[in-house]
């Protein structure tokens, strides 16, 4: 067990300082703003994934069904969930 622990690389002082700097920078961002930025990044990345409809469905109809829930949430409708 001792040999396995000694093989774990130790972070350099620069890497620890960089990690601490990023942590402090993240803590200074207002929560709502940070969440909105992350959601925007997620949408941007998800938009690059090619979409294939289920077999037997028209592509346009399948896309409307897939994004219908997102449209309802944006319009303020409540689906009864928490």
Quickly describe the structure:
With 82 residues, the protein is mostly helical. It contains 4 helices and no strands.
Can you describe this structure?
The termini are far apart. This protein has 82 residues and is mainly alpha-helical. The protein has 4 helices and no strands. The radius of gyration is 22 Å and the shape is elongated.
For the structure shown, list the relevant keywords.
82 residues, 4 helices, single chain, mainly alpha
Biggest β-sheet description:
none
N- and C-termini, Cα separation:
47 Å
Q: Give the DSSP E fraction (strand runs of 2 or more residues).
A: under 5%
Order of helices and strands: HHHH
Low-pLDDT segments: none
The quaternary structure here is single chain
The beta-strand count equals 0
Query: Helicity, in percent?
Result: 55-70%
Gross morphology:
elongated
Helix-strand blueprint:
Layout: H1 2-6, H2 13-28, H3 31-46, H4 59-74
């Amino acid at each position: 067990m001792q040999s396995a622990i000694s093989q774990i690389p130790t972070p350099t002082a620069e890497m620890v300082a960089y990690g601490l700097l990023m942590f402090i920078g993240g803590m200074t961002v207002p929560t709502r703003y940070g969440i909105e930025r992350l959601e925007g990044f997620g949408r941007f990345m998800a938009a690059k994934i090619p979409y294939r409809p289920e077999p037997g469905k028209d592509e346009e109809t399948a896309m409307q069904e897939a994004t219908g829930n997102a449209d309802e949430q944006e319009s303020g409708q409540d689906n009864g969930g928490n």
